[in-house]
Write a structure and sequence with these properties.
By secondary structure, the protein is an alpha/beta fold. The protein has helices at about 20-30, 60-65, 80-90, 105-110, 110-120, 145-150, 170-195, 205-210, 210-220, 260-265, 275-280, 285-290, and strands at about 10, 30-40, 70-75, 95-100, 125-130, 200, 240-245, 250-255. About 40% of the residues lie in helices and about 15% in strands. It is elongated.
Length: about 290
């Protein structure tokens, strides 16, 4: 059975995580993805792995996680022969995706204007760390740095802990989803108008967007989030929102009413906290009560 993007051809210049994850999702939807890799070394993720583990001693499972449903072509993009090959491919492609620093692709002769002259209907997506212009534009963007700069690391952990990064590449992965929904929108626009577009995605903006509720509260209230000592799962939440140790492991308590928890735990003393303002003002004290034996 044909998939939604069957017949769509993508020229993929991306490397590492964000871009390859996005084009992989498009490939899963049926697009024909041609991945352009550096001659000799390939995508940088081929040399990157976790736990120092390599499949068969040579293959990176990290690379494999984001590069299924693609065909690879190794080229020296600085050569005239490579330019001729890429331009021929571009004439038949619907989408180009790249995640180099601003200006790199244009300098090589593979910018949006170059492809637009060959194929006016082409959709071109550039993804960067901090955008195409501004004081940070030329800086390399990497997931951990974006988590740090966006303030995301201040939302996890206890009061006296250092900033806590998430244990996954959240900036890259959210950036990938932004690429996908942007490209699907551009395809729909082209279907209606016959015109291609240039899309610009950046990791920093992606992480800011996914903290909208935190920014909305701070900007309207004038109050900053402060992590509680008890390690509640979000610094804007009341107790007992978090993870608690039990006799046989750990338990997540999310939105359970205090009277129900008091009954389950057999601790009527918890009823003293059964007030929304009290649960916020005394959240460390309340959380400690959940950690004490009844």
């Amino acid at each position: 059975m044909d998939k939604a993007l069957s017949g769509i051809k993508i020229l993929d210049f991306t490397h590492l995580l964000q871009g390859p994850f996005a084009t992989q999702m498009l490939g899963d939807l049926g697009a024909d993805v041609i991945k352009i890799e550096r001659r000799g070394t390939g995508d940088s993720y081929r040399a990157w792995t976790f736990l120092k583990y390599w499949l068969g001693g040579t293959e990176s499972p990290c690379y494999m996680a984001f590069n299924r449903n693609k065909r690879s072509l190794a080229l020296d993009l600085k050569s005239a022969e490579a330019k001729e090959i890429v331009y021929k491919l571009a004439a038949e492609c619907d989408i180009v995706v790249e995640n180099f620093r601003p200006g790199i692709m244009a300098k090589l002769g593979f910018g949006y204007e170059n492809f637009k002259q060959i194929n006016p209907r082409i959709i071109y997506c550039s993804s960067t760390g901090y955008g195409q212009d501004g004081p940070y534009a030329d800086r390399p963007g990497q997931d951990l740095m974006i988590q740090s700069l966006s303030g995301l690391m201040t939302l996890t952990g206890r009061k006296e802990d250092p900033p806590m990064p998430l244990g996954t590449g959240i900036a890259d992965q959210l950036g990938a989803y932004n690429i996908v929904y942007g490209l699907l929108s551009a395809l729909y626009y082209r279907e209606k108008t016959g015109k291609g577009q240039k899309l610009e995605i950046n990791l920093f903006q992606c992480l800011l967007t996914h903290q909208l509720q935190e920014f909305a509260v701070t900007l309207n209230s004038g109050k900053l989030f402060e992590r509680p000592q008890s390690g509640i799962a979000h610094p804007g939440q009341s107790a007992p929102f978090g993870i608690y140790r039990t006799a046989d492991g750990y338990m997540c308590i999310s939105v359970n009413p205090i009277p129900v928890l008091a009954e389950v735990l057999g601790d009527e003393g918890l009823i003293a906290y059964d007030d929304p303002q009290t649960l916020y003002d005394k959240r460390d004290e309340c959380s400690s009560a959940f950690r004490q034996p009844s």
